[in-house]
Amino acid sequence: MLVGIMFTLYAFKGVDINDVITKISDANPWWLLLGMGISLVSHWLRAYRATLLYEAMHFEVSVKNSFLAVLIGYMMNYFIPRAGEVSRSAAISKTDNVPLEKGLGSVVTERIVDMVLLLIILGIIFLFQFDLIYGFIQQTLNSKASEQKSGFPLKWVLLGVFAIASVILFLLRKKLVQTKLFARIFSVLQGFADGLLSIRHLKKPYLFVGLSALIWVGYILMMYFCLFSMEPTSHLLFIDCLTVFAIGTIGIVLPAPGAGAGTFHFFVMQSLLLFGVSKEDGLAYATLVHGAQMILLIALGIIASGLIFTQQKKGNEQI
Question: What is the pTM of this model?
Answer without folding.
Answer: 0.75
